[in-house]
Each structure stands twice: as C-alpha cells, then as structure tokens.
Amino acid sequence: MKVLALLGSPRKKGNTDLLLDAYLKGIEASGKGAEVSKVYLHEKNIRNCAACDACHVVNIGKCVIQDDMQALYPEFIEADVVIYATPVYWWSVSSQLKSFMDRCYALGSVEDSFAGKKAVLLLTYGGELPNKGPEIVRVCFEEICDYKEMDLIDVYGVCTDEYMPVAENAAALNEVFEMGKKIG
Ligand SMILES: Cc1cc2nc3c(=O)[nH]c(=O)nc-3n(C[C@H](O)[C@H](O)[C@H](O)COP(=O)(O)O)c2cc1C
Questions:
Q1: Which of 12, 20, 88 to mutate to test ligand 1, by most ligand atoms within 8 A of the CB atom?
Q2: Burial class for 5, CB neighbours closer than 10 Å (0-12, 13-18, 19+)
Q3: Nearest residue CA, atom 17 of ligand 1?
Q4: What is the number of structural domains in the chain?
C-alpha cells in the first residue's frame, strides 16, 4: 500500500504536522509495511494552476508548468491512500494545499487517476466549536471525493489555539494514531 501524506501547514512540528505524524505512526504500527511518502508542501515550488487547459486539450493529463508538481504527479497517481492534512485558513484549506489540489486538475481527464483511492482529511483549527470552518472543509472534501470516486475513509479535526495545542492534546493524538492503525 502506498500512502501519500500531504502536509498543508507551513509550520514544521506545528499542530497539523504533529497530527499527521500521529496518523502516520498509526499506519506504521499496523505493521503491514505501508510505503509512506510525506510531502511538506510549503517547501515545494508549486505554482498556481493557470487554467490554460492544455492538460485537457493539448497534452492530455500533462501540466505544462515545470515545477515540483512534475515529481508529485506520479506519486499522487501511484498512491493508494492520500492524506490531506491542513490547518483551516479562512474557512478553507491552506493555500499550500489548495495549489496542490488545483494542479491535480491536470489529472482530471485521465481515467483512474483519482478513482478508487482512499482519502483522509486531517484538520486543525483555532476557533472553538461551533466553528463552521472545519465543517465547510469536510463538506468540500466529501464533494470532491464523491465527484472523483475516492473513498473518504477518515476525517478528523481538532481545535488548537483556543483549546490546547496538539502537542499537549494526548487524547487527540491517540485517537488519530488509532485511526491510522486501522488503515494499515
Ligand atoms: C492565515 C490563517 C488563517 C486562519 N483562519 C482560520 C479560520 O478561518 N478558522 C479557524 O478556526 N482558525 C483559523 N486559523 C488558525 C489555524 O487554523 C490554527 O491555529 C491551526 O491549528 C494552525 O495549524 P499549524 O500549527 O499547523 O500552523 C488561521 C490561521 C492562519 C495563520
């Protein structure tokens, strides 16, 4: 099983990173030998989709922008599980993750680039519930996965700033670890 873990937060060892690592430790603890690739999107050169549509009409499935996405496309295509880990930014995903997702538009015309994959959404957010941000992002991913025929197997969100940082939230870290363990 190949796992592509996308860290959408710019903060290494921040809340989202720690939550993602707990999930990955769970996968590792399952002992099933999953091959995990963790990508820190913030240090990648990923330009915004230019909507030129060349990927749909000229060279099907190929993006003309020559940047770090060219190495990430095959990783995405080969992944059985894609983990999207993001802080909620302005009721949405981080721009680092959004750019990655927009660029995956290039794969939209290639059959089976998305279909059949498992998807996991890990969220951190500052505002205590009721806070529509995490709910909006969850619905967004439900729609995307439904449209692209991906199986959204896990969604987990945790409040940070106004509650406690993930580093101190043993319950959340343990819950996410157990979730990861199940998908191994
Ligand atoms: C640019 C920016 C926008 C944010 N927007 C929201 C928001 O809309 N809703 C919310 O609950 N928290 C928001 N936050 C708080 C972060 O989601 C929260 O602190 C998160 O846990 C940060 O994760 P990190 O430690 O991985 O950076 C925002 C933070 C930043 C920097």
A1: 88
A2: buried
A3: 125
A4: 1
159 CA: nearest ligand 1 atom = 21
* Cα–Cα distance, 109 to 162 (Å, whole number): 42
CATH of the domain at 48: 3.40.50.360
**Which residues, 6+ apart, have CB-to-CB distance to 12 below 8 Å?**
40
**Helix residue ranges per DSSP H, 1-117:** 15-29, 54-57, 69-78, 95-103
| Residue of minimum CA distance from atom 4 in ligand 1 | 89
Full pLDDT tens readout for the chain, 184 residues: 999 999 999 999 999 999 999 999 999 999 989 999 999 999 999 999 999 999 999 999 999 999 999 999 999 999 999 999 999 999 999 999 999 999 999 998 787 899 999 999 999 999 998 999 999 999 999 999 999 999 999 999 999 987 799 999 999 999 999 999 998 6
Which domain does 159 fall in, by range? 2-183
Ligand 1 pocket list (CB less than 6 A): 9, 11, 14-17, 87-91, 124-127, 131, 133, 160-161
Query: Ligand 1: distance of its center to the CA of 7 in Å?
Result: 14
List Cβ neighbours of 74 (8 Å cut-off, separation of 6 or more). Answer: none
Sign of CA dihedral 143, 64, 116, 45: negative
